[in-house]
């Protein structure tokens, strides 16, 4: 197990749950729940899992699924906020395509499918990340990167399923995906917003929007 939380670096970590495959721990400061880091897949095994996904650009069901994030994200942006990065876009960057269709200038980045350094060398009016943050081994690293990528008053839009309590977590199908290793509570996102000077709202069960405050 990690000696500190992989998100907020707090040292007070408690056992939270275990199943036949791995143990899970909870940070007592930010409430992130994370799988035992000694149980992780290799990068090759992880990519093999992602290669099985069937997320096609012409799939209307996938488009409808992503609209749960794209609609509130677009409504939160001003007309001048037109540059965006889809972070963790996967092999089929449909969200970036949808946002481009809405008039936004999009870049994409993914460690396996679009690892182009230039995409991380500028600042954006918004960053989106759909169904990827739960895969992060050290989410503090990506969070810090996002802080650097965001312009003043920029929006960070995330989609991931949130856990609610210990009893429901133990029977939660979402944790059974071997690539899902970091799990967020609403309190986790509220902690990050308060610490790093964002407003935060939750327009859907699996969606969270952060807006960077002026400092």
From TrEMBL:
Single GO BP term: methylation
Signal sequence residues: none
UniProt keyword terms in alphabetical order: Methyltransferase, Transferase
Alphabetized Pfam families for the sequence: Methyltransf_23
Keyword tRNA-binding in record: no
GO molecular function: methyltransferase activity
InterPro entries hit by this protein: SAM-dependent_MTases_sf
Domain of life of the native organism: Bacteria
The protein's name in its UniProt record: Class I SAM-dependent methyltransferase
Lineage of the species this protein comes from: Bacteria, Pseudomonadati, Pseudomonadota, Gammaproteobacteria, Chromatiales
């Amino acid at each position: 197990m990690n000696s500190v939380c992989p998100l907020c670096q707090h040292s007070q970590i408690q056992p939270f749950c275990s199943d036949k495959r791995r143990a899970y721990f909870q940070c007592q400061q930010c409430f992130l729940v994370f799988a035992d880091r000694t149980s992780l897949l290799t990068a090759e095994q992880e990519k093999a899992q992602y290669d099985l996904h069937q997320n096609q650009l012409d799939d209307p069901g996938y488009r409808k699924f992503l609209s749960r994030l794209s609609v509130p994200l677009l409504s939160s942006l001003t007309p001048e906020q037109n540059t965006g990065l889809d972070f963790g876009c996967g092999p089929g960057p449909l969200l970036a395509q949808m946002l481009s269709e809405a008039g936004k200038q999009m870049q994409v980045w993914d460690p396996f499918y679009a690892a182009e350094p230039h995409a991380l060398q500028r600042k954006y009016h918004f960053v989106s990340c759909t169904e990827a943050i739960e895969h992060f081994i050290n989410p503090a690293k990506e969070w810090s990167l996002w802080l650097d990528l965001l312009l003043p008053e920029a929006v960070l839009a995330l989609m991931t399923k949130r856990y609610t309590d210990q009893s429901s977590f133990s029977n939660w199908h979402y944790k059974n995906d071997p690539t899902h290793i970091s799990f967020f509570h609403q309190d986790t996102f509220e902690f990050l917003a308060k610490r790093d000077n964002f407003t935060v709202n939750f327009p859907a069960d699996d969606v969270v929007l952060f807006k960077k405050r002026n400092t």
